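Tokens for chain A. Residues wanted.
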């Protein structure tokens, strides 16, 4: 007989009042998310449940003395402010760089856009204008303002920290956007990286339908080949780790959600449909966009196109 205390029993009911719990869930050969939940309450704790383990240990790690010292050191460091001021020097200015047109503000007001927004799993044929892609990227990750830095002892007095359209912990911006162009007028099919400081794209590689189905089988999307653009969001956690330590993962995931929502809202305002698609093949995605999967990780994917019913 399995003993469950009152607190655990409450959470069992709270999660799902029709789930059957069994002591044999620990020994199942196939571990589904449902079996993971069963294990959590049958055993004292399953160390393999990494997401729960991270959250349980997060406060202890982020409130440790070494992290407090590191955060203070960071906040009062001119060196780190300089790094932020010169972030645009990391962008490419080669023949592969494509300057995007100036973004255009049009469509419904923000309240109507929020009310209308719905995820759409059906896409129909039609091209996206390059102006619209430019607008989606700019208002989700582009540079919208800059603030002059007052650094003591620095010769260059014209240094600015540049801020983007969506919030980021410490304005460190660990998230990169990769654009897979499928049906965009004025932009060849291919894989590009968005450069927010110059509002441009850098060409990475070509892209075809074989690559598309390496990302996922897209069983629950109708007309995936009609999608105008796929946006992959990749996290470089070390950009935030110097200041925030283990909190960086949490902050990065929050930022991805904020960027994704901005993409959805701007797409809706421009008359497009969009769909979050997190269940893609991470390894294949990282190969396709040419990141290492060690220091940079593909975390989320969004499909944008003309919606059908």
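Reply:
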């Amino acid at each position: 007989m399995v003993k469950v205390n009152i607190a655990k029993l409450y959470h069992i009911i709270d999660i799902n009042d029709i789930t059957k719990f069994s002591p044999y869930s620990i020994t199942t050969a196939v571990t589904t998310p449902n079996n993971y939940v069963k294990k959590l309450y049958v055993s004292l704790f399953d160390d393999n449940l990494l997401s729960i383990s991270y959250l349980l240990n997060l406060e202890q790690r982020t409130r440790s003395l070494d992290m407090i010292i590191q955060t203070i050191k960071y906040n009062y460091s001119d060196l780190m402010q300089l790094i932020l001021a010169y972030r645009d020097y990391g962008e490419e200015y080669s023949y592969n760089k494509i300057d995007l047109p100036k973004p255009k503000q049009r469509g419904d007001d923000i309240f109507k856009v929020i009310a209308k927004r719905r995820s759409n799993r059906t896409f129909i044929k039609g091209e996206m204008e390059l102006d619209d892609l430019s607008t989606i990227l700019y208002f989700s990750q582009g540079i919208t303002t800059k603030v002059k830095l007052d650094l003591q002892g620095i010769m260059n007095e014209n240094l600015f920290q540049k801020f983007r359209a969506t919030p980021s912990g410490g304005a460190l911006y660990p998230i990169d956007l990769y654009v897979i162009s499928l049906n965009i007028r004025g932009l060849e099919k291919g894989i590009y990286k968005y450069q927010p400081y110059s509002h441009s794209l850098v060409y990475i590689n070509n892209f075809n339908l074989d690559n598309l189905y390496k990302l996922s089988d897209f069983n629950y999307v109708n007309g995936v080949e009609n999608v105008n653009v796929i946006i992959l969001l990749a996290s470089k956690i070390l950009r935030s780790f110097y200041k925030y330590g283990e909190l960086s993962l949490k902050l990065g995931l929050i930022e991805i959600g904020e960027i994704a929502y901005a993409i959805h809202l701007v797409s809706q305002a421009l008359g497009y449909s969009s769909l979050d698609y997190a269940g893609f093949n991470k390894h294949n995605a990282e190969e396709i966009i040419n990141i290492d999967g060690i220091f940079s990780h593909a975390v989320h994917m969004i499909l944008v196109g003309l919606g059908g019913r």
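Residues 6-48 form one domain. The two ends are 51 Å apart (CA to CA).
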